[in-house]
Design brief:
By secondary structure, this protein is of the alpha+beta class. It folds into two domains: 167 residues, Ribosomal Protein S5, domain 2, CATH 3.30.230.10; 126 residues, Alpha-Beta Plaits, CATH 3.30.70. Helix 2 crosses helix 3 and helix 6 runs antiparallel to helix 7. Bound molecules: cytidine-5'-monophosphate. Cytidine-5'-monophosphate binds next to strand 2 and helix 5.
């Protein structure tokens, strides 16, 4: 039977290791990008109806500010729907409703998540259920065309991304890790943070080599060692994000003082991620961090969780 409405839940990510290599000719940087999907999630519903349109709202109970999200052809979920329609040779007839709990421009790949969800939802709406034209590999390829972080939002779990971050290999993990994400008012632009990273390196006479995957990080993940994971967290974009948003230093320091096992800026920021020892510790940390100046919300979450999933 052909579906008339499909809802897909899709997770946010935090980067456990984000090592930035040299700037390439195509304007991207070669990365070692260890992605980890966490239980902050958006939901995208595609309803087979009329002309392609999108609405964006905060998820029930979420205080995410959605005013910065485009509701025209610039919306990454709309671009995803158009790609699926083009590949299937059908009219892009759907209303997309995005319910956001992932911070906007927060360094947690919320836009990429919505694009991944739209790929899955529209493929389910428009593809032939008996013999689908678009398989998992096709969706991963369409995802990579939309953005470097979109393939991971399809995959979920914990994975090592090479190239722009789109060449993914699942990482071995054990158990569940507990996190707190401290969001900040206002986003940071990913290209601006990468550009600031290049500027800081140039100013310091530093030349980036091709990065390696951290062996300490992989061991901590494989053994479920939260303390080891906390010590191995690393983000090359952090100095640039702190340069552009100095107040994040205070947030990170406060998390350390409160006993977080590790802390870092998530991706290009400004969300800060704190690793806790247990769900209870995460709840305590969240309560304390939520009271800080400069923190909009402190949200407990856990990972790894699955990628884009039809619900
Ligand atoms: O791929 P995506 O559109 O998400 O990337 C956003 C921006 O982030 C790029 O335009 C680029 O400035 C920067 N970027 C980068 N190297 C990467 C991924 C992203 O420089 N590997």
């Amino acid at each position: 039977m052909t579906a008339t409405a499909v809802t897909v839940r899709v997770p946010a990510k935090v980067n456990l290791q984000l090592s930035v290599g040299p700037l390439r000719d195509d304007g991207y940087h070669d990365l070692v990008n260890v992605f980890h999907a966490v239980s902050l999630a958006d939901e995208v519903t595609a309803v087979a109806d009329g002309r392609l349109a999108v609405t964006v709202e905060a998820a029930p109970g979420s205080a995410v500010a959605v005013d910065g999200v485009p509701v025209d052809g610039d919306n990454l979920a709309v671009r995803a729907a158009l790609l699926v329609a083009e590949r299937l040779g059908v009219e892009p007839s759907a209303r997309l409703r995005i319910r956001k709990a992932i911070p906007v421009a927060g360094g947690m790949a919320g836009g990429s998540a919505d694009a991944a969800a739209a790929l899955v939802a529209c493929a389910r709406l428009w593809d032939d259920p008996e013999s689908p034209l678009l398989g998992r590999e096709d969706l991963l390829e369409l995802g990579a065309a939309l953005g470097s972080d979109v393939p991971f939002a399809l995959l979920g779990g914990t994975a090592v991304g090479l190239g722009r971050g789109e060449r993914l290999t699942p990482a071995l993990t054990r158990g569940t890790f507990h996190w707190v994400f401290a969001t900040a008012g206002g986003g940071l632009s990913t290209p601006a943070v990468y550009a600031e990273c290049d500027r800081l390196r140039d100013a310091g006479g530093e030349r980036a080599g091709l990065p390696d995957v951290s062996a300490e990080l992989m061991t901590a993940l494989a053994t479920g060692d939260a303390k080891g994971l906390g010590a191995a967290l690393a983000n090359d974009l952090q100095p640039a994000a702190l340069e552009l948003r100095p107040s994040l230093r205070r947030t990170l320091a406060a998390g350390q003082d409160l006993g977080a096992l590790g802390s870092l800026v998530s991706g290009s920021g400004p969300t800060c991620a704190f690793l806790a020892g247990s769900a209870g510790h995460a709840a305590e940390l969240a309560a304390a961090l939520g009271d800080l100046d400069g923190v909009r919300e402190a949200l407990p979450a856990h990972g790894p969780v699955p990628g884009a999933t039809i619900i």
